[in-house]
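Request: Have a read of the protein record below and say how the chain folds.
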Amino acid sequence: MRRLSLFNSVSLTLGFAFLYLPMLILIIYSFNKSKLVTVWAGFSTQWYGELMQNEAFLDAAWVTLKVAVVSSTIATVLGTMAAYALVRGGRFFGRTLFSGMVFAPLVMPEVITGLSLLLLFIGIGLDRGVLTIILAHTTFSMCFVSVVVSSRLSTFDRSLEEAALDLGASPFAAFRLVTLPIIAPAVVSGWLLAFTLSLDDLVIATFVTGPSATTLPMKIWSSVRLGVTPEINALSTILIGLVATGVITASLVSKRNLVRMQREERAAERAQ
């Protein structure tokens, strides 16, 4: 086992400090008793209590959570279908155009995406609100789901599907009973990625939202422009905790599924 050199150790330490030290400072100052976020006045959890009584932040959090759940679910379904068509569909008329349209949001600037969707909604006369934010988030997050699921389908052993078809299963039954359970970790990962992107989005939501719908990133941005408050630190700490919990849970589930699949493969090899 090779040991890390002094240069690599210092580089890793500085890199992780650059990424996570600001978050650690933010978490620490969320428990600051003082109203001044740069002056430590003792440990207190009062700002978490005041945050729970802030109706504006609670309403924005509810809108954000609702949009994230609905848009990530729709994006996961559509992204999985698009990935299946691209990987298993072979060559069909318009395949190049279809793949380009699916993956275009990956490289499209968010300002352009938000502006184009705004013009679309105005053109069709659709009132801006929660629905338009859901449609916008589904549009740009679907491509990320498609990339994740496509990578798993590319390494999928198609002989398992063929065996199910030979035993009399219909193509849909083979997909539902064989393919989907195997690619489920990739589908769940795609959903979590789309969910996180929806929670984090500010630029696109700013274009497509209306006065009746304000997401949490928009509320935080408007509040920070007037000055950082301890409530913002408390809210950011809660978001960091939720995201970290989701990532750790997804990693544990994926690892457990991988270990289970390896055990099943070993058992099958021993049986042969």
